[in-house]
Design brief:
Layout lengths: L2 H6 L5 H12 L2 H13 L3 H29 L3 H8 L6 H31 L8 H4 L3 H21 L4 H25 L5 H8 L8 H14 L6 H6 L8 H29 L10 H10 L5 H34 L4 H21 L15 H39 L16 H24 L5
This protein binds tryptophan (TRP).
């Protein structure tokens, strides 16, 4: 193995891996992005398409990324290079590395808001959210602070500090969310929100719904840019990849659904519109905290835990480009972490200023700059990376190689379900070769208006 590998550390156990990968998956994507994307795309109809995308496209795809990572024990570029040296396919890995930095750039802005809200909730006369995110120095400062936290953790090694912390704090976030759901659904007028989230209006499903759902599913599960290749590369051959992936996907989906249950009843009870965009959660939650005894304390705790959930995600976003530069370009890890962090901060500035601080950044072709970045890198680039990687793994590396890898540690994978004439591995191969690429391709074509 190459120089950087041992510095990156190995998961101490299967559960350590599940926590790290679930920590990457669970973050602002579930609690901030999922509700606002669902709100913009018709609620329950979107949720239904989302769940179908997770189960039928993302889960089989996640097995594939993990298989490639564990097999090659490398970052996304190194993994592809190990299988097809000096081929154009390496570009997929490069796209993944770039996507990591760009997602980090806008993600850190929102993480900065989250961090700022820990303190803001203690003020008796807090400035409204729209004013808060329009103050340039505050948001840039908070973004910088958040990137600094990320750099310090990745700098010091992921396994000790953050793994131990997230094991303790993620269950706390979960409990707090349950409590907030109870408050949310018992507000008067909450039932309209439950209906919005759970009772699908099928006429709201359009081509746009599919891209939004697929993009959100890739984003939320940390797929499409080789993160699972990178994290999979630290797995041992004894680990069961199949059950690990099932855990990660289930936990992530559960947290997204809980976030929906927390936000929408309160939103409708407060008489607000569900399509408020990226500001949604930050507008609804503080108002709900006002309705709760010790609300500012509970609110501060909530934003603290959410900041930590965001941190376990930004760590993974930084880890992919860092792993690439250390492994492939032989950069020194400690220096790399600072350089990539500084670069991400630079890229973050226009996103940070796009929420009211600088007027023209608020409207670039109908979207603010942050939403534009979220769309380009969080939806399009991940779906494109996913498309190319399924083709690569299904047809170039080959499903039989991948299936061999997945069967290590999982006897289930080679067995025949319900006495059927084919194995789980064969069903999976069919999904990877045909279902996933065709579906993603059609969804992407639709973005470019091919179907009118
Ligand atoms: N999944 C994270 C979230 O939902 C965001 C994220 C972290 C991510 N690492 C990623 C998204 C890698 C795509 C790829 O908040």
């Amino acid at each position: 193995m190459q120089a950087g590998a041992e510095q990156r550390g190995q998961w101490s156990s299967k559960i350590g891996f599940i926590f790290a990968a679930a920590g990457s998956a669970i973050g602002l994507g579930n609690i901030w992005r999922f509700p606002y994307v669902a709100g913009e795309n018709g609620g329950a109809a979107f949720v239904l398409v989302y769940l179908a995308c997770v189960a039928l496209i993302c889960l089989p795809y996640m097995f594939a990324e993990l298989a490639l990572g564990r097999n090659t024990e490398k970052n996304p570029v190194g993994a592809i290079r190990a299988i097809t040296p000096r081929s154009l396919w390496i570009a997929i890995g490069i796209l993944g590395v770039l996507t990591g930095v760009f997602i980090l750039s806008f993600y850190a802005v929102v993480a900065g808001w989250t961090f700022g809200y820990i303190f803001k909730l203690f003020l008796t006369e807090p400035t409204p959210f729209t004013e808060f995110i329009a103050s340039p120095w505050t948001v840039i400062g908070l973004t910088a602070l958040f990137i600094l936290f990320t750099v310090l953790v990745v700098y010091g090694g992921v396994s000790n500090g953050i793994e131990r912390w997230s094991k303790l704090l993620m269950p706390l976030l979960f409990i707090l969310m349950i409590l907030l759901i109870i408050r949310s659904v018992t507000l008067t007028g909450a039932s309209a929100g439950l209906e919005f989230l759970l009772k699908p209006d099928f006429s709201k499903i359009t081509g746009k719904t599919f891209l939004a759902a697929l993009g959100q599913a890739f984003f939320s599960l940390s797929l499409g840019m080789g993160l699972m290749i990178t994290y999979g590369s630290y797995l041992s051959k004894k680990d069961n990849v199949i059950t690990s992936a099932l855990w990660i996907a289930s936990l992530d989906t559960l947290v997204a659904m809980l976030a929906g249950l927390m936000i929408f009843p309160a939103l409708f009870a407060l008489g607000k519109a569900p399509d408020a965009g990226p500001a949604l959660v930050f507008i609804v939650l503080p108002e709900m905290f006002r309705e709760i005894p010790l609300g500012n304390l509970i609110g501060a705790a909530f934003f603290l835990l959410l900041s930590i959930a965001a941190l376990t995600s930004t760590i993974s976003l930084l880890e992919v480009p860092v792993a690439y530069l250390v492994d492939e370009k032989r950069w020194k890890r400690k220096y790399t972490v600072w350089v990539v962090g500084a670069f991400a901060l630079l890229l973050a500035i226009p996103s940070a200023l796009s929420q009211g601080a600088v007027g023209w950044l608020g409207n670039i072709g109908g979207r603010d700059f942050l939403s534009l970045m979220s769309f380009l890198w969080g939806d399009i680039s991940l779906a494109l990376g996913g498309l190319l990687l399924t083709i690569y793994i299904g047809w170039v590396w080959g499903v039989s190689n991948a299936a061999e890898e997945l069967a290590k540690g999982s006897t289930f994978f080679k067995s025949r379900p319900f006495g059927l004439p084919f194995t789980n591995a064969q069903i999976w191969a069919f999904f990877i070769r045909y279902v996933c690429p065709v579906f993603i391709f059609v969804v992407l074509l639709n973005v470019f208006g091919v179907f009118g």
